[in-house]
Amino acid sequence: MRIYSYSLFCVVLCSGLIACSGDNSELPIQLDTEENSVVIDVDEMVLIPAGEVILGTNEKTGLTFGNEADQRVVFVEAFYIDKYEVTNEQYAKFLSETGHRKPKFWDNPTLNAPNQPVVGVNWEDAETYAEWVGKRMPTDIEWEKAARSTDNRLYPWGANYNASLGNFDDGGQMDGKLDGYAMETAPVGSFAEGVSPYGLHDMSGNVWEWVISTLDDNAIDAYTAKINSELTNGIIYTIRGGSWTNGPADTRTTVFYIYPAQCSDHSSSVGFRCAKTH
User: Fold this and answer.
1) Positive or negative torsion for Cα 214, 219, 224, 226
2) What is the rounded CA–CA span in Å between residue 9 and residue 182?
3) Which residues, 6+ apart, have CB-to-CB distance to 99 below 8 Å?
4) Which of 3, 31, 40, 195 is deepest in the core (most CB within 10 A)?
5) What's the rounded Cα separation, in Å, for the pair 148 and 197?
6) Which of 38, 34, 88 is nearest to 207 (CA)?
7) 160 CB burial (10 A radius; 0-12, 13-18, 19+)
8) CA-CA distance, 250 to 15, in Å (whole number)?
9) 222 to each of 3, 50, 146, how far by Cα in Å?
């Protein structure tokens, strides 16, 4: 699994050790002014109705670092979730009004256009933003239901991987030949045909998304969870959906990756979207 940064980054090593490095220096805001060709309401939220949903899978892919829970049926209360990943433009307003620390890569021209998803944010940054806009972070089971609906699909659009329906790793080359975006995030909403059944964009690919883990103990590798809990004061956080650095295995709706919430070297492939209780 690739979770890229342009310097040292947080990654779970094969030995099970989780390492964090890099500084958190503030960066100047230098947003690209290029307009998105599609007019969208980035603040739009979608209501996900209450009901049972099939989560997890019994046909696992044997991921090296990622995890997949066993298939089970869970009842999920109704909730709202952002239609799009939080953008740099939205996050810039938050920074301006709160003085919160700026994300890493804030001045990177391949990642900082107003309509691209904000990256270089850890859990604390994402949660603080969500509270500022009167929302909250989605739970793991909420995110998965929103991504796959009730018909047990493995990708937002259906059963099979399709490299043209999201911003992925271009067959491992990350050269943009398959999706049009080489070594960069795509503006949110760029892949209208790859939406989930509820109309949510980029639930597979573009950037990993922070969620609150609501998986039971049997769904998480005990050793990995123990290491992570030591770094996050007993609270387990996960990221979902895969990113522009990932291919078919890691971008399935069933995949979750345990990630250190307070890692100081933020990743260029991790962002978030917000939720709200109905």
Assistant:
1) positive
2) 20
3) none
4) 3
5) 7
6) 88
7) exposed
8) 20
9) 22, 30, 27
Give the integer Cα–Cα distance in Å for 5 and 99: 24
- Which tens digits make up the pLDDT trace of 187-228? 999 999 999 999 999 999 999 999 987 766 556 665 566 556
Which residues of the chain are under the pLDDT cut of 50? 5-37
Residue 55's DSSP bridge partners are 72
- The HSE-up count of residue 133 (CA atoms within 13 Å, CB side) is 25
Three-state DSSP state, 117: strand
Question: Which residues contact residue 185 at a Cβ distance below 8 angstroms, ignoring those fewer than 6 apart?
Answer: 110, 111, 116, 117, 119, 167, 206, 207, 243, 244, 269, 271
Residue reference for tokens 């500084």: 23
Query: Which residue type is seen at 219?
Result: A
Q: What pLDDT does residue 11 have?
A: 36
Q: Report whether 209 contacts 258 (CB < 8 A).
A: no
Query: What DSSP character marks residue 36?
Result: P
Decide if 189 contacts 40 (C-beta within 8 A): yes
pTM for the model: 0.85
pLDDT in tens, 72-87: 899 999 999 999 999 9
Strand 208-212 versus strand 270-271 pairing type: parallel
